[in-house]
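[Meeting: bench + compute handoff]

Bench side (C.D.) handed over the final construct sequence. Compute side (W.E.) agreed to return the predicted structure before the next meeting so the bench team could plan truncations. Sequence as handed over:
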Amino acid sequence: MKIVVLNGSPRKGGNTEIMAQAFTKGAERKGHQVVNFHVGIMKIRGCMACEYCFSHNGECAQKDDMTQVYAELKDADMVVFASPIYWFDITAQLKAVIDRLYVGAAVGFHITKAALLLDAAGGEDVFEAAKTQYHAMTDYVKWEDKGVIAIYGMLDKGNMSACPKLAEVEALGESL
C-alpha cells in the first residue's frame, strides 16, 4: 500500500514530526511505501475556488509546492493527516492542503483510507474541532478511518520522544 503522510506542523523536529516518523517506521516495517511531506514548511497557498480543476481534468491552476503533493496522492491508497493543535484545531498550513484537495471533486480519489495524528500542549479537550472536521471529511469522501491518535501534554519541543503513547502511533502504522 502507498501511504502519504501530511505533516502540518510549521516546526522542524517537533512533536508532530516525531509522531509522523513513528507512524512511518511502523508502516514501512509491514512493507508499505510511505511518502512524508512536511507541508507546514512548504509553499502552499489556499484554494481559490476558481474551479479550474473541473475544466482541466483535476489539475490545479496554482503552481506551488502542492504540485509535489498531488503527484504522490494521485496513486496513494491512504493519507495520514498529522498536526499539532495550537488554537483548538489543525494548523492553517494543513488546512490549506486539505482545502486544495478540492481537485479530487473533479476527478475522484484513488485514496480509500485515512488516519489522523494530533498532539497538543493542552489537555485532551482541545482536539474536538480537528476530530470533527476529520470525521466529516472522511465520511464525505468515503475514506475508511484507520485510526485517530491524539496525544496531549506535549508542552515542549521533543517531548514526544519520551511519550509512552508514541508506541501507539508506531503500532497504528504497523497494523495496516
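W.E. noted at the follow-up: The chain is about 35% helix and 20% strand. C.D. will use this when planning the next construct.
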